[in-house]
Design goal:
With 336 residues, the protein is mainly α. 49% of the residues lie in helices and 4% in strands. The strands form 2 sheets. The chain has a 3-stranded antiparallel sheet with strand order 1-2-3. A two-stranded antiparallel ribbon has the order 4-5. Helix 5 (122-135) runs antiparallel to helix 6 and helix 6 (140-151) runs antiparallel to helix 8. The longest helix is centred in the N-terminal third of the chain and has 21 residues, at 25-45.
Length: 336
């Protein structure tokens, strides 16, 4: 087979461009980040043409990345699996030898190693929302954290919401996949759904729209529900709201890590994620899902509301203890 020379950076750019119509922007960002390590390694090794990459080279990269990044097994697997997908794509454009992807050996994880358990628990969530209600009522962070906790939606779905997607009379939100105007959502059309809202959540949204929301109209004519004077809130902004307001010190709780505000790196506005207690939007979503299950919601209802299959829900989101599950089953004893 005749290979066509291609340098690592050009290959990555072509790969990401090719996949833009297939996956969400969040996935594109993740793949760029993971494969950026491979580009760094190629640069260190002086590799300028991927035609020359061998299975042994890919093994050396895996060992280098493991040592250089001090990676957990699940993180290593995620990055190596992404590399395999990239190498397989390169085969399709004659950039590397055929079947080279089969030599990308991914780590085998033990039971439970591929399950992330970090979440915002019920007590912390209620304390944060109570503080926001009292001191930051109907602010953007109040609205963002309220939506993520109560609706269990992904941050990409929150980013995609338009003003018209909220129906105060029907007390509902509509999540819509609109890739042509810059807001694709996870699972595309299969991720589209209506989400019922409680009266309390509607009241906060109504007051946000009436008193705090910036009236922005995009070039496409769309009006984002979550907006700043510069336009639709970027997912980075929404993530920042989550990290900042899940720091214990932000709501007046003593630091559980014995850090001083004068020296703590996480006290800075853009460094909140460095706080061990701060939580990502996904951890808030996981906490909201677990809370709903603890409140007795049936799994099919949670699955539809959060747009996640029951199998994935069981494996990756349901953080109830076995004893909590037992106590919930107790209510059915009278039916035996």
């Amino acid at each position: 087979m005749s290979l066509e020379p291609i340098d690592p950076e050009s290959a990555l750019n072509l790969y990401l461009t090719d996949r833009e119509n297939e996956v969400s922007q969040a996935t594109i960002y993740s793949h760029r980040s993971r494969l950026g390590h491979f580009l760094r390694w190629c640069d260190e090794q002086g590799i300028t043409n991927l035609n020359d990459i061998s299975g042994r080279d890919l093994h050396y990269f895996r060992l280098w990345r493991r040592d250089e990044g001090s990676l957990k097994p699940v993180t290593e697997k995620t990055q190596i699996d992404t590399l395999r997908v990239f190498i397989r794509w390169l085969e399709s454009i004659d950039g590397v030898e055929q079947d080279l992807h089969t030599k990308v050996l991914s780590p085998v994880l033990g039971d439970g190693e591929n399950v992330r358990t970090v979440m915002l628990n019920e007590n912390r969530a209620k304390a944060i929302l109570k503080h926001l209600y009292k001191f930051e009522y109907a602010s953007r962070p109040h609205v963002v954290l309220t939506l993520l906790w109560h609706t269990m939606m992904r941050v990409g779905a929150a980013h995609a919401l338009d003003l018209g997607d909220y129906d105060p009379k029907d007390r509902s939100l509509r999540v819509v996949h609109r890739p042509e105007t810059g807001t694709p959502i996870k699972n595309k059309e299969a991720g589209q759904r209506f989400i019922a809202l409680s009266d309390d959540v509607c009241t906060i949204l109504n007051d946000w729209i009436e008193t705090k929301r910036v009236n922005i109209v995009e070039e496409s004519g769309r009006q984002p529900l979550l907006a700043t004077p510069k336009g639709r809130c970027h997912t980075t902004t929404l993530r920042g709201d989550c990290y900042r307001w899940t720091r214990p010190c932000e709501i007046g709780i003593e630091c559980p890590h014995n850090r001083s505000p004068e020296t703590c790196a996480a006290i800075k506005y853009d460094e909140a994620s460095k706080c061990p207690s701060s939580r990502s939007p996904h951890a808030i979503r996981r906490g909201g899902i677990t809370y709903a299950l603890n409140q007795g919601w049936p799994k099919p209802a949670v699955s539809d509301r959060a747009n996640v299959s029951e199998g994935v829900l069981e494996k990756h989101y349901d953080q109830r203890t076995e004893q909590e599950k037992m106590e919930q089953r107790r209510q059915y004893l009278s039916n035996l």
